[in-house]
Amino acid sequence: MAKVYNCVRNGKEYYRINRKVGEKVNSEGKIVPIKKVFYGDGKKDAEAKYEAYMKQLAEEQRLQAEAEAMNSDCNKPMHQVIDAWIEAFFNNCDLSESTKALYVGNYKLHFKDTELASKKLKDVTALMIQEFYNSCDLKNSNLKAINKLLTHFYTYCELNGICANIVRPVKVPKKDTADKLHGIHEIDVWDDKDLKKVIKELSGTTMRFLVVLAVNSGARISELLALTYNDIEGNKLTINKQTTEVTYGDKCGVRLSNTKTACSNRVIYLSDEVVKEYEKHKKVHQAEMMKKGYRTDIIFSTTTGKYHFKRDVTRSLDRLYKRINVPKHTFHAFRHTFATNLSRAGVPIEQTSKLMGHSGSDVTQQYYINIGQEAKLDAVQKIVQYSLA
User: Which CATH fold would you assign to the domain 192-386?
Assistant: First the structure.
């Protein structure tokens, strides 16, 4: 089929089309179309040139909009840009929910409301961040969490052309105590007598088995609160999930998520005494479910069959410690005590590392400091003796 032409230009035939490519405001304040003429070797070629032009125009407009947005971000307070980034990007990244909660929680508690975070993003320098780290009274763990979040944030900014990654040269200062400098680590562990007193006082409650299992498995509180009755078979405890506390608008909730690391997925063997405690717990829990009118397969549930918030569990235990006059410990002290008791019983550090779900024995090493060789050789009892008389 012969090509059709509708105009002549410089002595050559073309097909001409006149298309709208945008809009503008005229001198009278009215919005009028912007039109452009396209010439082609036939109608199809002219239409193709129009499509290519519109595609290029759209890309230029997109890049301009991004540049304006980036420039706008640079002129906003640092905390405002970080908040928007957390909501749009960080909350959906591949880190575990507990890790994200740790980083964001420390940012909101210890950094968001600081004078530094109120400065415009473009005005913040690496030196300012370093000086903030050096001068604040936060623990190393808090500073490391903040630095991790800022590292993720500035990496995003650099990849998207917003600003350079200024935290790359910044270092979290080591604020070691004199004891740590000399190789002595303060580990929060339970005294045998106090621990047995706590467990005895919890008789007849579902909280008793939570403490017994914590100190005889080394599981984290988030791992324990995620357990269902299918996770204990015979004397085998399977750890493959944890609870994570999340916020939905003004409401808080608990949901299941993956464990802290791949190494945290593990099977722990329970002593016969702990299995007996488990059977007692099931009876206590069953009686509570019948009385309260709920059903659940969650081992450590609320009185409505839901997952516990960690703060509710720790608050309840703190009240007990005060009532029976024993020193207050964090819940994590049960995990520390488990590791220390394994050391007392002469268990090799490599085995303890696997039971703890650590990625390497270097983390576990702290529980083996100042445990005498004689105590290791003389230990013949299972670690359950340290918690159950």
Answer: hpI Integrase; Chain A (1.10.443)
